[in-house]
UniProtKB/TrEMBL annotation, chains A, B:
Catalytic reaction(s) noted: alpha-D-galactose 1-phosphate + UDP-alpha-D-glucose = alpha-D-glucose 1-phosphate + UDP-alpha-D-galactose
The enzyme's E.C. designation: 2.7.7.12
Organism for this UniProt entry: Glycomyces terrestris
GO BP annotations, alphabetical order: galactose catabolic process via UDP-galactose, Leloir pathway
Active-site residues per Swiss-Prot or TrEMBL entry: 186
Record protein name field: Galactose-1-phosphate uridylyltransferase
Span of domain Galactose-1-phosphate uridyl transferase C-terminal: 211-306
UniProt binding sites for Zn(2+): 67, 70, 133, 184
Lineage start: Bacteria, Bacillati, Actinomycetota, Actinomycetes, Glycomycetales
Length: 363, 363
């Protein structure tokens, strides 16, 4: 990892397959003004959850003229000062969390009264997967995918050590159907100053399961799914399956075959074996409805940095709103307001669409 | 309420301002075949939640030729056999819950193992607000809105007595932006066989708050919001405000000034005073960005039928993904996968857009 700076003081990190690429030495020649900081987080008394308020983000550009994730090229100055790169990670210019320069405080563990706010500490980063604007994660080589995972692992370790990050979430949103406006292949990292609501549910469920059975819940899920009707792909270290109680029309969980708390704990051989399996899953997603790239959200569930860490488990979750050719599922009142989900296809039907042989012979 | 039957055995209820309209006497002359039942619910071990699997729904028509919510007219046979109506409620032909004819069992309170399913008991109903296809709830008279609320109250009472409904949710989805394909003004009712995840959070929060303070959480929220910067509208019995920790770009909560568990408990004068206030809120939403009807999801939070009922409170929540002129918020990985919300406008900014005087003088 080589670390450089951007014109407004943000950090940029280049991840290279060979040392000494010297990319961090290129200066950012733009005049960006001061750095933009996140706002605050507010405590939702009805849900016992923190919500970020990030008013500055509504002014962020929706369709920039030049792609800010391409390498800088002569007078065309972008977020990446170097003229080329493999994988680059930089602080988001319009962050929902952090951007204060120094780490901020964690929110209070106990709150009273109806209005409680704290600074939106933490960090938001952008992860560029390739300097080829027209590429896509699914088109990259296994070596590149492994380099991306190594970058995420390093960032997870670094953000976990900041002191104002309670949980690191690495994810990719892909597809205009889910509002992605920057088509350059990229992901993001959120270093939240709190443990997210979904993670708290998972930790609580595992805690209860261990107390009741003496076994780890994730081990039992793996044992139950392995060899079953919803397995999509597997190799020596990883298994990908649609879970029994899936809620998205397409939903794939990728587990390593044993427990790691987060990407920073993942051994080299697990990173290397993850890459081809994930590429196969992505190709199967794109082949589910021939001719239609599948929009998706894919994120790494990681154990929190502090309390509850021993109940967490690293795995990746990929979900899609695609529910048929040209059709997407909208999350309407039942899902959005009440959390009551309805699976329209049935988990086995959607798994079968991912299990079928590739019509293009691409697998 | 007059109750009739549809060709496949489903019930239809007509709500009229005057008795003896005789609408239920019109027979459904269609050949629909047998009734379509919901599938099952599956227990999600990682979240301690039930998820409905309703594979049959993916075959439901997306754009029927004739509107099924218009009254039947000669040879044009719809879901409403009568030639005209005020408010009509009928069982959804493609239900996510119920449709078995008789009430089904409630899911087990305790589950073990990794795969647990139960019948998707309960009920799904469609609520037609007017027989005028081109109308909209916001365009109706206060008297009609009050009749709709009376219909919802009656249905809440009836569904609560079934024995296979744990919670009744009455809601409206409006706008192509959130996937609504039937543009006839209508809402829906879900009688869930379980208490929804969001409601469980609210009940838990109130339970903790009462234990810690001796006061009701909803009373404290009302006291805190009243007279504050995010109040949108109020009258003798109701207050509408954007909450302190709102998460949707536009979010309005409408509370009665004292506690009712559900719509069935609401006194007549509260129903009559709700109607004009809600119409004002809807008009303010449509005026936030002139010329753009606001897509929204609006639902009544009601206390569960059984356990936890004493901690619940009736109120309406209206949320919108509109975040600017021609712009909508997409719920991407942070919200969808982790439950980590970011408010892009800021609750006070969005409240101010609803507080401003109507540019059309329509209020």
């Amino acid at each position: 990892m080589e670390t450089g700076g951007l014109a407004d003081g943000r950090q940029i990190h280049y991840f290279n397959t060979a040392p000494g690429a010297g990319r961090a030495s290129f200066a950012d020649k733009r005049d960006l003004g001061g750095r933009v900081s996140a706002g605050e987080i507010r405590y939702d008394v009805l849900r016992d959850e923190w919500v970020a308020v990030s008013a500055g983000r509504s002014d962020r550009p929706t369709l920039p003229v030049a792609c800010p994730l391409c390498p800088s090229d002569g007078e065309e100055l972008t977020e990446i000062p170097a003229p080329g790169y493999e994988v680059a990670v930089f602080e988001n210019r319009f962050p929902s969390f952090g951007g204060f320069g120094e780490p901020g405080p964690l929110p209070p563990a106990e709150v009273t009264g109806m209005e409680n706010a704290a600074p939106a500490s933490g960090r938001c980063e952008v992860v560029c997967f390739s300097d080829d604007h027209d590429s896509s994660l699914a088109d990259l080589s296994p070596e590149r995918v492994a380099l991306i995972v190594r970058a995420l692992a390093q960032r997870t370790a670094d953000l976990s050590a900041r002191g104002d990050v309670a949980q690191v979430f690495c994810f990719e949103n892909r597809g205009v159907e889910i509002g992605v406006t920057l088509h350059h292949p990229h992901g993001q990292i959120y270093g939240y100053p709190y443990v997210t609501p979904q993670t708290r549910k998972h930790l609580d469920a595992n805690k209860r399961h261990r107390a009741a059975t003496g076994r780890d819940l994730f081990d039992d899920i793996l044992e139950s799914e392995r060899g079953g009707p919803r397995v999509i792909a597997e190799n020596e270290h990883w298994i990908a399956f649609t879970p029994y109680a899936a809620r998205w029309p397409f939903e794939v969980h990728l587990y390593p075959d044993r427990r790691f708390a987060d990407l920073a704990e993942l051994p080299e051989e697990y990173i290397d074996s993850f890459a081809p399996l994930y590429l196969e899953v992505l190709k199967r997603c794109d082949n589910a409805y021939p001719g239609e790239q599948m929009p998706y959200m894919a994120g790494w569930h990681q154990a929190p940095v502090g309390e509850g860490r021993e109940f967490g488990r690293l795995r990746l979750e990929l979900v899609s709103i695609r529910r048929g050719p040209g059709k997407v599922k909208f999350l309407a009142s039942s899902e959005s307001v009440m959390g009551g989900w309805v699976h329209d296809l049935g988990p086995e039907t959607s798994a079968a669409l991912l299990q079928k042989d590739s019509p293009k012979g691409a697998l």
